[in-house]
Write the structure tokens for this entry.
Amino acid sequence: MPITIERIQKTQSVAAETDVSSEVLSSLINMAGRQRMLSQRIVLKAMLAQRQCDGALTIAQETLRTFADSHAALVQGRAGLPGLFSPALRDAFHGNGHVAKNIADFIALASAALEAIGRKSAHAEDAVQALIASADPLLNDLHGVTALYEQESRRIARSQKHEQQQLIERIKSIAKEAHIVSFNGQIVASRSDVTGREFAVVAGVMTSITKELEAVVSAFVKKTSAA
């Protein structure tokens, strides 16, 4: 199936913002960065294919498919990738910069050029020249997208660190409250009647839970500090 603007635009869905792990962010940054190399490879191989260099047309077609599939994965999301997970990314692709449209136009130009070369059309040279003319503006767009993914990665890392700190403080507060309850329970349990002895068991369990909670907090703090 030929790659068309309509086919690409159908994949450009809007994803809701969500939490994204550092591993996923690394994959997104790598994929966005790879798009720059792929776009240049498409143009180069198209030029070589126009000169009838052996194998250049096949490589150009395969590279174009990879580029288009990666673009769809970045925008739509796929196999664990979240798509356009933040307002900043959605604005970059679909806002005033028209990055998504520019990429779709490049894919359409490349597809048309390679098809013309394959048919040995008289218009092949013009199609290749149009593709070459689109390469530098597209590269600027792709540079900007990669930089934005890196910026979003730093933003999310800061946000996650803040949330972790809030969680630590909340757990500490709960542990402190539990410790106070346990201490007060032990005082009440100092009575010698049966109810007091039963309460002493409850207070002992509460103390054990408090100590375990404090240990968990300590281990969590060490782990997050090391990260």
